[in-house]
Amino acid sequence: MGNLDWSFYNWDLIANFVLKGLGFSVVLTVVATVGGILFGTVLALMRLSGRKWLDLPATLYVNGMRSIPLVMVILWFFLLVPFLIGRPIGAELSAVITFIAFEAAYFSEIMRAGIQSIPRGQVFAGQALGMTYGQNMRLVVLPQAFRNMLPVLLTQTIILFQDTSLVYAIGAYDMLKGFEVAGKNFGRPIEAYLMAALVYFVICFALSWGVRRLHQKIAIVR
């Protein structure tokens, strides 16, 4: 540890190497969260529809995705899709599509639990007012489910941000890749990886603290 040298870290290094990767990690997290929640909500509604032809494929998809390591899904998509369509799609686009498809399975289970947490009496009240299934879900159930599940959704988003480092496997330029390139250029890979771990910890700890505060406020409102 006495041989570690942190003097090569400066603003130019951060701006040229790290911020570019951080930007992609943040964009990937936001896009995958929004896409995952939308797709996951559809999957949750399919599983709760009571119709086997909707429930069965959604269940197979969710359980299948949740049973495969994310890094394997990333590698399979990155390697197999270009082979099937006959042209490469790029590491960044491949990462975005893969994360949306994978995270939808997890967001689906969160949304399904949130929907099931709504008292059935409110659903029956909506039906008594003449609402269709879609209107009941859109106007009565889903708004309350989103509020109830917001802390869990944000916690999953933090986990998603951590998982963005796995795009390193296909060469996408995320924050971890930025630290790695900086470490190689300056001959200090150990310091670069240690700093990357520290930055991930600080970001995720701050976000987790914010989620806990939000959860406390939501509990007070209830």
How much beta, percentage-wise? under 5%
* H and E order: HHHHHHHH
Q: Which spans of ≥5 residues are poorly predicted at pLDDT below 50?
A: none
Biggest sheet record: none
Number of contiguous helices: 8
Cα-based radius of gyration, to the nearest Å: 21 Å
Quick check: average pLDDT?
A: 89
Helical residues, percent? over 70%
Anisotropy-based shape: globular
Query: What is the multimeric organization of the chains shown?
Result: single chain
| DSSP summary, beta strand count | 0
Which structural class fits the helix and strand makeup?
mainly alpha
CA-CA gap between termini: 50 Å
Describe the structure.
There is one protein chain. α1 runs antiparallel to α7 and α5 (120-128) packs antiparallel against α6. This protein is mainly α and 222 residues long. The protein contains eight helices and no strands. It has helices at 11-47, 52-66, 70-85, 91-116, 120-128, 133-163, 175-185, 189-221. 80% of the residues lie in helices and 0% in strands.
Keywords summarizing the entry:
8 helices, 222 residues
